[in-house]
Amino acid sequence: ADTAMYQAKESIDKNHLYYQEKMRNRLETNKKIKEILREALENDGFKLVYQPQVNLRTGRAEYFEALLRLKNYNISPGKFIPVAESSGLINEIGRWVTEETIKELAELNQESINPIKISINFSVKQLHDAGYIDFLEELLKEYDLNPGLLEIEITESILIKAEDKAIEFLNKISDLGVKLALDDFGNGYSSLKYLSFINFDKIKVDRHLGKMFLDNDQKETMASLINLFHSMGLPVVAEGVEELVNYNLLKNLKCDFIQGYLFSRPVGRDKLTKILNHNFIKDINL
Ligand code: C2E
Ligand code: MG
Ligand code: MG
Ligand code: MG
């Protein structure tokens, strides 16, 4: 019995040490990432890559989603955005993304005949950036940009965490003429309630929800969801589409846009200009 007790205690101690070690490693990693982010803000260490959202009627990439990358590190935003949020660096990073995108939009729309629209991601923590709306308004003026070319993507969590404040903040953005998209719909609470309070222009259906409905032969459910949004006057983007069979299904269901590896991974600024007038659907039908 003594031996068993001893072994149990030893195992608990080991476990304890293991978790302590794991926790310490995580804290150290986060500290490192925080330093990397701070350095990137100071030394131009961020860049944006752009993923096309293909209009299924025209085959053209009418919108691009700007996605943040570190120039010198292979750390995904899934890892560094949470650190940016918890360390308070997100506001400054968010402003950098906003300014960079507005600059790009101003430049691109001088070069191209078809209007190019770009969406950026907005973290719930940025609701605390009280000066953001003035900042945004100033930039739009400075670059003389049609605000309708910029879209801000927000996830459902923004609506749960700070209801009234969030609604006011977002409607101010919408009043500037900037578009609002609800990102990752179906990944969280999926409250339809907020759709009437906030002037959304577009719905992006989360990759996992779309995949579940299409893979599990719940096409009727996907059809109903798309129809519901259409009845509210909202175009629908299917996120993360990788397979041809799902493109065909979504096209039949009158989904408006597809964003996914099937058409293109996010691309750098240099490649962006090349695919502006590309017909993605022609590729597929070949
Ligand atoms: P998100 O806004 O939902 O962006 C879409 C993510 O799905 C991107 O990942 C994109 O590369 C990925 N994706 C696109 N098509 C496919 C596909 O066919 N299959 C698969 N498996 N994935 C696909 P990424 O770039 O790693 O970004 C992850 C998340 O990080 C974003 O999700 C967004 O929530 C956040 N994020 C990225 N950039 C920013 C930013 O500038 N600011 C903030 N606040 N968040 C950002
Ligand atoms: Mg997004
Ligand atoms: Mg998304
Ligand atoms: Mg997503």
TrEMBL record:
Q: Which residues of the full protein are shown?
A: 522 to 807 of 807
**EAL domain boundaries:** 30-280
State where the protein is found: Cell membrane
Q: Which residues form the signal peptide?
A: none
Identification of the protein by name: EAL domain-containing protein
